[in-house]
Every structure is written in structure tokens, then in C-alpha cells.
Amino acid sequence: MTKVKVNQIFASAFETVTKTLVAVELQQAEQPVFEGEKTYKETVHTKGALDSFIVCEFSATMFEAIVKTMYGGEMPPDPELPLYINEYINIVCGRAVSALNNETNTKTRLSVPSFYTLEESICEEQGKEHETKLFYMTKYGRLQVSINYNNMEIS
Amino acid sequence: MDKTTIIVIDDSPFASKQIKDVVEEEGYEVIGYAKNGEEGIKMYSELHPDIVILDIIMPGIDGIETAERIKQMDENASIMMLSSLCDSGTLEEVRAVGVKYLLPKPWENDLLIATLEMLTKQREEGRN
């Protein structure tokens, strides 16, 4: 599986699901959309044919746009915030993993996502053989995805 | 006529609320929510719902193992699964534990209701 293919499968899932689920159009950018500022973060692992660690960063306004829409128009109480953004990432990455499984006739499973506030840093090991990134601008804010993965056995 | 009763086992309040809104408008009654597999199995044994709507990716035991355990308690349990994982391999795993229906998240409401209707009909045919 080439880096381009992994990138394309995740890009398609992020763009399609974000439009369907929260009615936000993602526009790909060429360059990183964050420069050292604090972001909300979600991480998720995949295991199986694709061994990966995925980090998704949201600007505060993008995070609020997603969570607010999923909650029905307002922000949920703070303790419930992770549950909504976790579900967003679960659906996006599940869509990508399903496409990957079908396309390569292999099996990869997804972990439960983890949430990090603006003040928290990701403490997990990110070291994998390859990394591919997606950068997005929207009218609500910015989104950046880093997919760190080891070689898939199939080509 | 009694309403068909449902429990929803899903760690996402977003999914649970969406399901409740859609199915109750169609005359079904959601009688319980569980946010993980362990809670869901306990709830099934206490409430004996007509139908279980079950997520796959959850903290603790996943939806496939949860379905398997519910089927061990009650081989006639009517279960449908909703998940973002919807590839052919996952469908095979779901079928291997005796569940016929796997719907993708985000789901089409019409498809959700049509699946519930099929499960309800199959339950009624099984009773007669």
C-alpha cells in the first residue's frame, strides 16, 4: 500500500463524512495549518494489516463547529465533549479502515479514540516507518491529520 | 398493541439520541441505553427487549463479543449492529455470531427503520 493510497483513502473518508455528518466542506491545503498554537486533539490506533497511529488536530472553532452540530446546535456540558468528537473520529476512521479492508481484502481494526484538550499534550509513542498528512481549511476553522504507519504487507 | 421495545448499546450519546428520535417517531419504544458491552448484557437480561441495536467499537468488550454473549443467553435475541466498520470481513464476523444485519454509520434513517421492520417481522414469525 503506497503512501499516496493511504493518504487518498483517509482524505476521502474525512471529506465525505464531515460533509454528511456535520455539513462542513473540507478544503485541502498544501501546507500545515497550525504553527505551534494550541489545538484540540484526537488520537486513534489501527491494528492488523495497517498498523498505525493517527493524530487529528482541530482549531478551537472547528472543534466547536463539529461538536455543536452533533449535539444539536449548542455545546454539550464539558464532561460530554469528548464523547461527541470521539464519535466523529470513530465514524471517519472507521469509514477509511472499511474502505482499506475492502480494497485490499485484509483485516484492520480500530481502537476507541482518545481526546486531548487544548492544554494537554499527546504522550503516546508516534514512531512508525511512514507518515502522511492531511491539511484542511474550512469556513469554520482548521483541521490537520497525521497518519503514522508501518508498511502494509500487501502492495 | 404493545410497542416493540429496543435497547441501544453504544458509547456515543450522539448515536443513541439520533436512534431514539428516529425509531420512536416510527412507533418503537427505546427502553434503555447502555454505554458499553458489559452494561448492555446486564440490561438485556433485566429488560428483555424485543430488539438490540448495538455498536461495534466501544470501550471494554466490543460489540461483536457483546452480541455473542447475548446470543449465548438467548439464542433468539434479535440484534442489529450499527458501525463505522462496515467492510466484508466485519460483516462475516458479525454473521459468525448470529447477527444478520450490519448498518454503516452514519446511517440512512429509512434503512434503519426497514431493518427494524424486518427484525420485528422475523420475531413475530418465530413466535407463530
Topology diagram in text:
The complex is a heterodimer of chains A (155) and B (128).
Chain A: H1 3-22, E1 27-28, E2 40-48, E3 52-58, H2 60-71, H3 81-104, E4 108-110, E5 114-116, E6 130-137, E7 142-149
Antiparallel strand pairs in A: 1-6, 2-3, 2-4, 2-5, 3-7, 6-7
Helix pairs in contact in A: 1-3, 2-3
Chain B: E1 5-9, H1 13-25, E2 29-34, H2 37-47, E3 51-55, H3 63-73, E4 78-83, H4 88-96, E5 101-104, H5 109-127
Parallel strand pairs in B: 1-2, 1-3, 3-4, 4-5
Task: Tell me what you see in this structure.
The complex is a heterodimer of chains A (155) and B (128). By secondary structure, chain A is an alpha+beta fold. Chain A contains three helices and seven strands; from the N terminus they run αβββααββββ. Chain A has helices at 3-22, 60-71, 81-104; strands at residues 27-28, 40-48, 52-58, 108-110, 114-116, 130-137, 142-149. In chain A, strands 1, 2, 3, 4, 5, 6 and 7 form a seven-stranded antiparallel sheet that branches. In chain A, a hairpin with a 3-residue loop joins strand 2 and strand 3. In chain A, helix 1 crosses helix 3 (81-104) and helix 2 crosses helix 3 (81-104). The radius of gyration of chain A is 15 Å and the shape is globular. The relative contact order of chain A is 0.28. By secondary structure, chain B is an alpha/beta fold. Chain B has helices at residues 13-25, 37-47, 63-73, 88-96, 109-127; strands spanning 5-9, 29-34, 51-55, 78-83, 101-104. Chain B has a five-stranded parallel sheet with strand order 2-1-3-4-5, sandwiched between helices. In chain B, helix 1 links the parallel strand 1 and strand 2 (29-34).
The largest pleated sheet of chain A is described as:
7 strands, antiparallel
* Strand portion of chain A: 25-35%
Using the alpha-carbon principal axes, give the shape of chain B: globular
Oligomeric state of shown chains:
heterodimer
User: In which range does the helix fraction of chain A lie?
Assistant: 25-40%
Order of helices and strands of chain B: EHEHEHEHEH
Morphology call of chain A: globular
Biggest interface pair, counts: A-B, 29 and 20 residues
Structural class by helix and strand composition of chain A? alpha+beta
Mean pLDDT of chain B: 95
Write down how many β-strands of chain B occur, each being a DSSP E stretch of 2 or more residues. Answer: 5
User: H/E element string of chain A?
Assistant: HEEEHHEEEE
Topology, number of strands of chain A: 7
